[in-house]
Fold prolyl oligopeptidase.
Amino acid sequence: MTLVRSFAALAPLALLLLACPGTSPVTGPKDKAGPSPSASASAEAPGPELDAPPPTPKKAVFKEYHGESVADDYQWLEDGTSSDVKSWVGDHNRRTRAFLDILPGRQALYTSVRKFVEYGTPAFYAFQHKGGVLFSMRWRPPKQQPFLVTLTPVDKPNAEKVLLDPNAIDPSGNTSIDYYVASPDGGKVAVSLSKGDRAGGSIRVFDVGSGREIAEVVPQGAGRYKGKSIAWNAGGTGFFYTRYPAEGEGKPEDRGFFQKVYFHKLHTPVKDDAPAIDKLPRLAQIDLETSGDGKFVTARVESGYSGPKEHHVFRQGGGFSKVADAADEVERTVAGPDGDLYIISKKDAPRGKLLRTSAWKPQLAKATVVVPEGESVLLDVLPTLQRIYVRSSAGGPSEMRWFDIKGKPGGVVPTLPVSAVHEVVLLQEDDLYFENESFTEASAWYRFRASSGKVEKTAMAQPATADFGDATVVRETCTSKDGTKIPLSILRRKDAKLDGQNPTILTGQGGFGVVVSPDYDPTRRAWLDVGGIVAVANLRGGGEGGDGWHKAGMLTQKQTVFDDFFACAERLFELKVTKSDKLALLGAPQSPLLMGAALTQRPDMFRAIVARGGIYDMLRLEGTPNGAYDVPEYGSIVDEKQFKALYGYSPYHRVEDGKPYPATLLLTGENDPRGDPSHARKMAARLLAATSAKAPILLRSSGDTGRGVGTPLDHAVLEAVDVYTFLFHVLGIEKP
């Protein structure tokens, strides 16, 4: 399955679209004449007076957890369908707009940021090479959404043929391609389309030659995560797909759970589709993948986010059978062209080892070790008839190596220094396309020629809109509370003075085993131009150090992640990169909890916080539509030990009356399938009632988007401008 990495997801500051309930949408930037604040501004930067927040009544509700009574004054804000809540959100959005739209320097920021967001994403991405046809997602501003094209021959971007353009389907820009999967012969393509960034798109099938839609629409149901899965059979006569129970199937409370794998034969009624894998966990999340020859389909089933995994394989002429259970600690299975199954296992190898067994008769217990555990974390494998390519993470940055078919080391695939490899596509004769980017080099597609061992940049690259030739990336380490060394990347101009006066953005994640790798964000150019510095932390809880690194920051160990983050901030102070009143935190869409923990545990350490998504009330989390899927990572209130850990750091419950909190911008989307927007609503209400500081606390709630993927271009631009306008004002930065 190929997931579409949209421009909104790629640009970390293109966040969540704002559509104020009861107000007109924002149409463009506004500026107000007057002097901009200087870089030496006081803690209360000059600017427009912020309106008082709308009244928020307290309606205390008490609940007992393991003998402890906990009050919740703002539980009433959880009901997003309530007219009172909608009115309250609308009032907050109007207050936020009234403040941000007239801040000095907004017009100049809009001009520069628009260019960066429009062209900061690869022109081509999400490649698939099937039947001699190269498929790709294409990004071409000023179109609001990327579209699907074919490239024949490869390496000729001018030979593109548009196969499906969601902008033509929906000129408003609110319909997007979630992902697509081409059939093994390249003759057909199945595409998942959704509207308004909602989870649960519908599958539509197109003939590649004519571009015509050729089959019935297959719904995937209301699900908890976007980018569910499709895998074609060998002949391209049908496909396996994942689906949640439809309305009327099963119990109402089970909607959004018990996902299954079905098979759909083209030109037959969807209602006749039968389950291909039936007995799966309640929290099943399934990724399907067809082998290059179509003879095998692998299914990776994860129970909740970062939960235990089981693996199944389908063989042509047979059915699915289970290859590995949760206890086997298998991360990934890939069927090779030689009829073997390649397995990434973490059993007694927390950084991963590569095993091999027959795909026709897989026996995990008898699998042989092809590539033993190494220093880097094994992430992916791509077997060919002659070689085995592997992609690894070395503390965040990527590595690519190749081995012969017996596992003998062959060499390294050259990549950019301190960079990330996102996608790897097999061409012919063991040649590869791979997408590579770094903090200073724009994402582009490179071709690795197996015969010479050389890499060349292809023509399928977007010209860089921001030149980082004057910048450098320094890899530092921080010492956390327990003595563990934490990697930290620092992006700065070469001439930056380390005098503690630099406005600095610190970001990180530390959860779900996700690897935070180097990324090219052209909007950072605007930040560096005013003397700003960007620091990216690789915290425990992520996947940068393998399974043990992840486990050290999950469940009752989650506080470790926060301690790592604070250590990174302290390291920036020690290096005289910045100081507390020049430091801002920027949360990734997957890290609102980290921002909330920093805000409530060390508010003195930061001047400003921008938090995306919403996970702040850890006691009510698992009761939200998506929260059950988070239990494997965070824990459950049912377990007393886990409850104590959750309550101990829950940001919503750790807000203290009368404490001065830093400037805060909370962003959320009403369609977010991962972080229920009620968390941000409640957190905003609690902070506004408690803080003794005059620093702005703002809520920005989108009415018709989710977490950013699928956001129309115009909205993405305005979102990025809002974030930078907020940070420039709060940190007292004057735009040159």
Q: What stands out?
A: Residues 1-44 have pLDDT under 50 and may be disordered. The radius of gyration is 25 Å.
